[in-house]
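Session log. Operator J.P. requested a structure for one protein chain; no other inputs attached. Running the standard single-chain path with token output.
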Amino acid sequence: MASDYIQKRNHSDKERWTCIYPTYINNKKTIAEGRRISTSKGVENPTFAEIRDVLSATGFNVIVENKAYPRDKSKELVRGRVRVQFRKDDGTLVNPSYPSRDSLLHFAAEMIPKLKSRTNPVSAPQQAAPGGKKKGKKK
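Structure written below.
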């Protein structure tokens, strides 16, 4: 019944787009926690924004939703889900270089470490060096 409903929808309908959670490519997660690729190919704590940037630069139609991964039981509860359109309305692939979800996950995991935000992290402003004049009671 549900498959009939899905098959009647166009590929351009956002409900038909594929969901990608950052947990899928997080090498700090286990398979039971939701990781979908090997730890050697994964990325340390990816964000939905990094996945969005990589996929939109590749030419995919991407939207971000404020959803949490259902298996994530952590206290910090990382939110964010990326939806990707794989097929056009006529059924052809949007980007033939990436025909499946797995190929797209591997590509995102390969490209995220090369992002400027990962290679040149913005450092926090430095504190004033200790020393200098000390204020206190006058003798």
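Operator note: The mean pLDDT is 83.
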